[in-house]
Design goal:
Length: 288
């Protein structure tokens, strides 16, 4: 006896088959959707990582630039500090030079005042009262001058001569002209050494012995000095501080001789008494 399947069993079996078919079909679809979702998430993470890397590199570049600017600022600060120190030293040096120039100008003014005073004393003429006392007036000498007599034509009247009166002539008084003594010209000598062919150069001017500054004092000046003192050529050495400092005024400075002048006073110079030297710079020569 065979048992036939019932209607319900068939329906259940068909339902299970349909479920399996649906699950199989939906499982493939779910796998595809999940794969798409995972891929999208991976792409998003990749873009985020790339953006992070870009931001990180930008931050690193910014930090490097800031570090470079900081180093540049430090260098600039060091340069500014060095420039400030140099400027301070230059200002102190300039102030020192200005003070020295002011002092030298004051000394030159004093020397000029002394020169002017000495010049005025030397150029004062003799007293007028003494000249008047020394005038010699000659006494007038009387002289007689006779007028010529002319003879009249022969007449019986006697000829009479007109009386002649002498006219005195008074000579003009002669006054002696004042004679002012001529100022003595400048002289030259060597001092400060026992030898006769070397020493400190000293110049006599305006009634006083003085020295010569060694500024711009070279062999041409020494040659002219030695020839002026009667030495002929040879080796000429210029000494500075070798014969000791002199005294009195410093008459000449910044000489410019060519070497063929007959006298030191024919050479170019800054002028009598014009200098910026001390006696520790007095020049000397050694002639042969």
């Amino acid at each position: 006896m065979t048992v036939k399947p019932s209607f319900t069993t068939c329906h259940v079996t068909c339902f299970i088959l349909c479920v399996f078919l649906f699950v199989g079909s939906t499982h493939g679809h779910l796998q595809e959707e999940w794969k798409k979702y995972v891929d999208s998430q991976l792409l998003y993470l990749r873009s985020e990582i790339l953006q992070y890397v870009k931001d990180h590199s930008f931050i690193l570049n910014t930090l490097r630039a800031l570090n470079w600017h900081l180093l540049t600022l430090r260098k600039d600060i060091k340069q500014l500090d060095a420039g400030r120190r140099i400027l301070k030293v230059q200002m102190e040096y300039s102030l020192t030079n200005v003070t020295k120039h002011v002092d030298s100008i004051e000394e030159k003014l004093k020397d000029l005042e002394e020169i002017i005073a000495n010049h005025q004393q030397n150029t004062v003429g003799p007293d007028v009262d003494t000249l008047e006392g020394s005038e010699t007036v000659e006494k007038p000498v009387q002289t007689t001058t006779a007028k010529p007599t002319t003879a009249k034509p022969t007449t019986q009247k006697p000829t009479t001569q007109e009386p002649t009166t002498p006219e005195p002539t008074t000579p003009k008084p002669t006054t002696a002209e004042p004679t002012t003594p001529k100022p003595e010209g400048p002289k030259l000598r060597l001092a400060g050494s026992s030898t006769g062919n070397g020493g400190r150069v000293e110049v006599y001017h305006n009634g006083q012995w003085g020295t010569v500054c060694a500024d711009n004092f070279e062999r041409f000046e020494a040659t002219v000095i030695c020839k002026m003192l009667g030495f002929s050529g040879g080796t000429i050495r210029v000494y500075k501080e070798s014969f000791g400092p002199g005294s009195g005024p410093i008459w000449l400075s910044n000489l410019g001789c060519r070497g063929d002048e007959l006298s030191l006073f024919d050479c170019r110079s800054g002028g009598w008494g014009v200098h910026n030297c001390g006696h520790y710079e007095d020049a000397g020569v050694q002639c042969n």
